[in-house]
């Protein structure tokens, strides 16, 4: 973005567009350029605007707060559907847990980005289609295709959130990269708010128990049910209006955990050889292996999103490169294990879903690893690595569509 800032250093409108496309990166790049290259009247204006630090936390405008409060109320009411309409919780929550959070986050960004009526209509139509479809699938606790559909549906809702977040941006690639970073930042804030909520819950229940009043049933049925969806919604509102809160925390987390996870992964792979355990004949071990793969891959993507503004070779890039190689090794083991199981016992919905997912992840990891190799050799930047990451994400959403809509038909709702 530095080149674009320099190119438009005298154009207030273009600078504003760059700022709105990715506020965090714009601020970092501007502050790096300002001392030597932007000592102009317009540059001074932007310096004051970007670096003025308020002593208080901004909760956003009154309209934003009202919007979020309405979303929390509606999300809580959806979570209360089983009690209000005498629906089995075992039936309702596996199918609808994603609808308690994602549509409201999506609605917030649709509203903030002033998206067109056509875009709103597309998002609403897909949401209604998904809700109707997932709730009318045959109810069978032993149906693997139903379980897979319930697990993959939130990925579709997450993709819709990404579409709304990007909005009408003139720099969609950078905005998609900002969305990746947004996920990490909101996750950090949500954890902090969640810890505060648990402390508040413990204090409240403890204080009432001291005077002999038991409020557990009332508290969890009428307060916590609204408090849980409030956490990511408030985290989004806070992050949107106070990006500086986690601007330094998230990179620290990424820098701290990347080398630790790399060491853990090396130790874990070594321990597998010693223990004699393998994912080829142990189904639960294969499941754990795949969860490990997804978690480490998410850390790589999050770390790239946090450091994509850096140029040149540094130890963080090397760590990410070696972590990506180790993750490819994990993926290769998992992929060979699922191919072995299919060759021995044939295709099932679960094996097919894991096979497809592992192939997609392997392709993605190899692309990212190749770019990380170029980055450590100073032939590209982490920004291009980040763009490669976000360009591939829609493929996962397409795969989720296939699992949700086609697998039940392909395998006869098995």
From TrEMBL:
Domain of life: Bacteria
Keyword Zinc-finger: no
Residue ranges of the TM segments: 67-85, 91-110, 122-140, 146-165, 186-213, 219-240, 252-274, 286-305, 317-340, 352-373, 385-411
UniProt KW keywords: Membrane, Transmembrane, Transmembrane helix
Protein name: DUF4153 domain-containing protein
Source organism per UniProt: Algoriphagus ornithinivorans
Origin organism lineage: Bacteria, Pseudomonadati, Bacteroidota, Cytophagia, Cytophagales
